[in-house]
Amino acid sequence: MTYRVELLPSGVQFTVAEQQTILDAAIEQDILFPNRCQVGACGMCLCRLVKGEVSYQLEPMLTEKEQAEGWVFACQACATTDLVLTFDE
Asked: For strand 77-79 and strand 54-56, is the pairing parallel, antiparallel, or unpaired?
């Protein structure tokens, strides 16, 4: 199964497979996505979930407040639905 990811405000869209991280899918499809370490340590891929749901194999280092605000680490998050993401605060 695959899911559609839309990045705001650009409207760029790409697909992500089940159990594939959002960042891996973006890189694989030549989508510009901020990243550095690709393991959740640097925070470069941090983005906000506008719509949809993600899951993690390992819980990310996010505060409860950050999680409630919808922040996700794209290098660690896998889509469980279609997603809309933004880098805007």
From this structure: antiparallel
What pLDDT, in 10s, does the model give residues 74-88? 999 999 999 999 997
When the candidates are 2.30.40.10, 3.40.50.300, 3.10.20.30, 1.10.1040.10, the CATH number that belongs to 2-86 is 3.10.20.30
Cα distances from 20 to residues 15, 24, 56, in angstroms, run 10, 7, 10
C-alpha separations of 32 from 7, 17, 27, 68 in Å: 10, 18, 7, 26
DSSP class per residue in 6-56: EEETTTEEEEEETT-BHHHHHHHTT-----SSSSSSS-TTEEEEEES-EEE
pTM (whole model) above 0.85 = yes
